[in-house]
Write a structure and sequence with these properties.
The complex is a heterodimer of chains A (123) and B (370). Chain A is α+β, with helices and mostly antiparallel strands and 123 residues long. Chain A has helices spanning 28-34, 81-84, 88-91, 115-121, and strands spanning 7-8, 13-18, 21-26, 37-41, 48-49, 54-60, 64-68, 73-78, 99-103. The longest helix of chain B is centred in the middle third of the chain and has 12 residues, at 124-135. Chain B has helices at 15-20, 40-49, 69-76, 124-135, 160-166, 212-223, 233-242, 277-286, and strands at 24-28, 31-36, 52-55, 60-65, 89-95, 101-111, 114-119, 142-145, 151-156, 180-185, 188-193, 202-207, 229-231, 290-297, 308-311, 314-323, 330-337, 346-351, 354-361. Classes of the chains: A alpha+beta (123), B alpha+beta (370).
């Protein structure tokens, strides 16, 4: 269910780290809690983000929820597909990244949950 | 966590049915209610294109009966109940002396001296007490909170009338919008009313609570081939908003008058009197300083309840907002200074610190094809 190639936050984001870059999305558990996602508001490109701090919003029909950055660094890209197709977050949560961070410290994510720990958290 | 535990929440007769069928449950107005079954978008679209079944048993029923029942209803309800024939229903406001809302309601005339008032779930006790107190001096009238005697199901959508017709011998073609009849539905005695809160055709069925599950199941079985789905409060909210209908307690309350809420058509100006009439007449003569309008966002973003609005001529506030599943745009309702309420007027909404452009549009975002 939860891929082993990434790390997870207790706030239900995931991050896939490749070199000094990290791509961030939300988990299947999170999308189920949100319901139909209709609008993704990622942090602006160029913005500095910190691990555990607010980094944009995700809106379902019902409500708005805050996104928290799983890592510290600078936002270098946002997923442009989501402005036209926010529902990708529901249909393919683990294949749909929201924003990409140039990581200040790629080792930082070691303090996040692995897939088994996360699966236990949301069990 | 200030959320009351589910044990403290009231339950409709269908509560176990909702839970057994995987509905996501939330507290609403003191009730444990289904917010979604298969997803808000799916449920919303089913009601717009096929049919949906809603458990709205949390709504309150108050009966007013006796020789002077009409006089009692005329006193507490802003609309003119003398216009109601037996078998007819009327949308109205339960007003304070200031012309503001205790609640909105639908008045059903069951007999010449017997009315059934349907009020909102969170307001049942308050509305009942208000009506009982305010009609005490009227004369020969009894006011009864009969909420526990009714389960209320709504069948809504273009396929709804055909589905309900299959389950009753009553001729529904003769029951026009905002009229009702009596008959058996799925073998259960029912008030069958052509009313609803979705902007679609359909019926609301007042039935004995003990039979609610049987009727619910039979409607779902009968409507299966037509694509009926159970619908939760989430889609009920997006459907009513798209249709430009108010949510009491959110779009209007004791701080907003009937005229400010743009519901002047609920006022029986020719009536001898009702609570709040003088205040509303005065406000009508002076003109309102703010009014509820429909808006759509002119840039990405979704405005939500409570977000500040900034218009030329003053500030306002968003009372409802969502992304509509059908029209696929962000819409809402907001109070704005009167000078800014003309359709086409541009203003801004503060979306979590970001001033985002929006535009005033007619409040009925969606009108069903006829």
């Amino acid at each position: 269910m939860y891929p082993a190639d990434r790390r997870y936050t207790k706030d239900h984001e995931w991050i896939v780290v490749t070199g000094n870059l990290g791509r961030v999305g939300i988990t299947d558990y999170a999308q189920k809690q949100l319901g139909d996602v209709v609008f993704v508001e990622p942090p602006d490109v160029g913005r500095a983000v910190s691990q555990g701090q607010s980094a944009g919003n995700i809106e379902s029909v019902k409500a708005v929820s805050e996104l928290y950055s799983p890592a510290t660094g600078k936002v270098i890209a946002v997923n442009g597909d989501l402005s036209a197709k926010p529902e990708l977050v529901n249909t393919d949560p683990h294949g749909t990244w929201l924003f990409e961070i140039e990581l200040s410290n790629p080792g930082e994510v070691a303090n996040l949950l692995d897939n088994q720990q996360y699966a236990e958290l949301v069990k | 966590m200030n959320q009351p535990s589910t044990e403290q929440l009231k339950k409709t007769p269908l509560n176990a049915r909702h839970r057994a069928h995987g509905a996501r449950m939330v507290p609403f107005g003191g009730w444990d209610m289904p917010v979604e079954y298969s997803g808000i978008v799916n449920e919303h679209m089913a009601v717009r294109t096929k049919a949906g079944l809603f458990d709205v048993s949390h709504m309150g029923q108050i009966e007013v009966a006796g020789k002077d029942a009409l006089g009692a209803v005329q006193r507490i309800s802003s609309n003119d109940a003398t216009k109601l024939s037996v078998g007819q229903a009327q949308y109205s406001a339960l007003t304070t002396p200031a012309g503001t809302f205790i609640d909105d309601l639908i008045v059903y005339r069951l007999a010449s001296d017997h009315f059934l008032l349907v009020v909102n779930a969170g307001n049942i006790e308050k509305a009942y007490k208000w009506i009982a107190d305010e009609t005490r001096a009227v004369g020969d009238v009894a006011v009864v909170n009969s909420s526990a005697r009714y389960a209320l199901l709504a069948v809504q959508g273009p396929a709804a009338p055909a589905i309900v017709q299959q389950l009753t011998a009553a001729d529904l073609t003769g029951v026009k919008y905002y009229w009702f009849t009596h008959g058996e539905v799925a073998g259960v005695r029912s008030i069958i009313a052509r009313t609803g809160y979705t902007g679609e055709d359909g019926f609301e069925l007042f039935i004995p609570p003990a039979s609610a599950e049987r009727v619910w199941n039979t409607i779902l079985e009968t409507g299966a081939s037509a694509g009926i789905v159970p619908v939760g409060l989430g889609a009920r909210d997006t459907l009513r908003l798209e249709a430009g209908m108010h949510l009491s307690g959110q779009d209007m309350d004791e701080t907003t008058t009937v005229l400010e809420a743009d519901l002047g058509w609920l006022v029986g100006w020719k009536k001898h009197d009702f609570i709040g009439k003088a205040a509303l007449e005065q406000q009508k003569a002076a003109g309102v300083t703010r009014r509820l309008v429909g808006f759509e966002m002119a840039a990405p973003g979704i405005a939500r309840h409570g977000y500040p609005a900034h218009a030329r001529g003053g500030d306002g506030i968003v009372t409802s907002g969502t992304q509509t599943p059908l029209l696929k745009k962000a819409i809402g309702l907001a109070y704005l200074p009167t000078a800014a309420t003309t359709p086409g007027t541009e203003f801004e909404i503060d979306i979590r610190g970001r001033r985002t452009p929006a535009r005033v549009v007619p409040r009925q975002f969606y009108k069903r094809p006829r």
